[in-house]
Amino acid sequence: MFSKIMTIGGALALSIGTAGFAERGADGHVSIIYWQAPSILNPYLSGGTKDVESSSLVIEPLGRYDQDGALVPFLAEEIPTVANGGVSEDLTSITWKLKSGLKWSDGTPVTSADVKFTAEYCMHPEGGCAQASFFEGVVSIEELDELTTKVTFNQPKPNPYGPFMGGQSPIIQAAQFADCLGAKAPECTGANFGPIGTGPFVVTDFRPNDVIQMKANEHYRDPAKPAFATLTFKGGGDATAAGRAVMETGEFDYAWNMQLAPDVLAKMAEGGKGKPIAAFGALVERLEMNLTNPSPDLPAETRSTRAEPHPFLSDVRVRRALSMAIDRDLLVEVGYGQAGRPTCNLVPAPKIYTSDNTGCLTQDIAGANALLDEAGWVDSDGDGVRDKDGVKMAILYQTSTNAVRQDFQALIKQWWSEIGVETELRNLDASVFFGGDPGSPDTFQKFYADVEMYANVFNGTDPQQYLAAYKCGSEPKPDSQWQGENINRFCDPEYDNLIEEYARTGDIEKRGELGRRMNDMLTKDSMTIVPLVDRGRVSAHSVTLGGVVLNTWDSELWNVADWHRIK
Fold first, then answer.
1. Which of 40, 244, 373, 423 is the 20 to 30 Å CA partner of 464?
2. For position 24, what pLDDT does the model report?
C-alpha cells in the first residue's frame, strides 16, 4: 500500500514471469550479485543488509511483509490477530502456530522448541544480539504444544509483530545452535556460516566476504520449488560492476542495490540483458554524528559510551551548521535522479509517520557560518579551519566504498570547507564496514570516526523497533559484542519515555504522532542524525528471470522460491 513502483530508463519496475513451475531444480542455475559481500549468515550477529538478505535464502521467519507492507505467513499457519484469537484481547500475548510437516534442511521436524530457543538466543544478556529490539518487552516464551508458541509481553503490545517477523528475525534450529548461547555466539563458525534452515536453499560452501554456493533444499515445504537446482551468491566489487554483470554481459541474473547515477543505469539497460527495477520504501541515506570522542588514545569502553563527549560534535549548533551547509537537491541530482528525494526525516514513510520537517531542504552556507561564529568556533590562525580552546574543527568522515557515496563525500567536504571545517575522507570495503566483526576497528557499529554515512531501513510498515534502537543503553559496546544500532550513542530519558508510550499505544493516529515526535528529536531537534536522501530501492534482474517482486519492506530476496527461468 505504501510502495511506489516506478520506471527507470524506460524499464518497467515490476517484472513477474508467466512461466509455471515444472519440478524442483528444473531451471538449473541462478546467480545473484551483491556488491556488499556477506560476512556471516546469521542476522542475529549482524545488522548489515547483505548479511540479513543472504541468510534469508536459508533461514526464515514465521511471517513476512509483502511488497505492499502487508503481513503474510511463511512458517506460520496464519498471521495471529485479535480476530482469529492469535492475539489476546488485552494485547499482552501473541500465539503462533507452525505449519504442520515443516522440516529443517537436515530432515528433522521444525517445532515450537526451535521458536522458543530463537528468542532465548537473541535475548541472552551476553549474546550481543543485533536484533534485540525485536524482543523488547518479552517476558516469556511458552511451548503450548509441538507446533504452538505463546509470546507474552510485559504490557499491552498494539504491534506484537516484533519477534519472528521479517527477515531480521528468523527461526534458527535449536539443535544446531544449542552450544552458541551468550558470549559463545560469535565462536560458532559452523552454524553462523552454514545454518540449517527451512528456506528454499542450503549452503554448500561459504567463503566470507566473497562467495556463497547453495543448492535446492530437498526438504523445502513446496515440492515444486525452488525452480533452480543451484545458486551462486557473489559478493564484493562495486555497484557499477554488478549492474553491468546483469544488464550488459548477462553473467548474473540479479544485482542488488544499484546505487548508481540515473544516466549510468539507463545506459546499462541499453545492453538488453537485464532491466532495473525500483520502488520507494523508507530507506534513507544519512549522516550519523558521533556524540562521543573517537580518539584512538582512549580505551574501547570510553569510546563506546558518552563518558567523554565529542570535542565539538557534542554541540548541537555545530551539528546543525554541518547540516545547513549541505545542498540535498544537488546530492539527489548527482546520485539518484528520479530514484531519490531530498529529506530531513529518518522515517520518510509510511505517510502517517512522516514529519512535516523540511527545514534542512534549503542550503544555507551563510547561516551555517553565522551559527558557528555564535558557538565560538573561529579561524584564529588564518589557516581556513575553525578552532576553539586549542581544538581544530577537523572531521574524519567515513562510509563504504561506492561511487555515489564517494561523490557525496567529495561534495560535502567542499561545502564543509566553505564553513571552515577540515574534512578527511575514508571509505571502507562494505563487507568490513557492515560486517559486524567484533574484532574489527572498521565497522559502522564501532564508529571510530567523527561522522559516517550509510542507509538502513526497518522491516514492515511500523518503525517501532527501528526507533527503539536509539534508547539509552542500546549502544554497541564491548560487552554486547559491539552489536546494537544506537551507533552515535544518543541518550535522552524523554525519548525513552516516548518509546515506552509508543509501545503501549494502539490508536494508529497517536502512534503516528509519537513516531513523528521521535523522528524530530533525532533529526530536527538534536541533529544527531542528519538525513540526506530518501532513496528508492533500485536493483536489476535478467530479462529471463521471472517471479521477481521487489520488496522494500522486508528482505529483497523474500520470494526467491518463486523465481524461475522464462523460457
1. 40
2. 96
Polymer length of the chain: 567
Residues linked to residue 33 through DSSP beta bridges, in sequence order: 234, 255
Query: Which residue positions in the chain have pLDDT lower than 50?
Result: 1-20
Name the residue with cell 554456493: 213
Cell (9 digits) for 556: 529483497
In angstroms, what CA-CA distances link 17 with 223, 337, 356?
A: 20, 28, 40
CA–chain centroid gap for 4, Å, is: 19
Confirm if 185 and 197 have CB atoms less than 8 A apart: no
Q: What is the pLDDT of residue 367?
A: 98
Q: Phi and psi (nearest 5°) for 109?
A: -75, 145
- The 10 Å Cβ neighbour count of residue 428 is 19
CA distance 346 to 323: 14
So what's the pLDDT on residue 10? 29
Measured CA to CA in angstroms, residue 151 lies from 44, 116, 164, 336, 528 at distances of 19, 9, 10, 42, 34
Positions of E strands within 301-421? 340-342, 387-388, 391-392, 394-400
Q: Tell me, what's the pLDDT at 75?
A: 98
Which positions ≥6 away from 435 have C-beta within 8 Å?
Answer: 39, 40, 46, 48, 51, 209, 443
Residue 474 in contact with residue 502, Cβ under 8 Å?
A: no
Q: Pull the grid cell for residue 294.
A: 573517537
CA dist., res. 532 & res. 415, Å (int): 14
* Amino acid (1-letter code) at residue 149: T
pLDDT score of 337:
86
Domains of the chain: 280-536 (3.10.105.10)
pTM for the whole structure: 0.73
User: Which of these, 514, 455, 540, lies nearest to 257 by C-alpha position?
Assistant: 540
Enter the DSSP assignment of 522: I
Q: Are 532 and 345 in contact (CB under 8 A)?
A: no
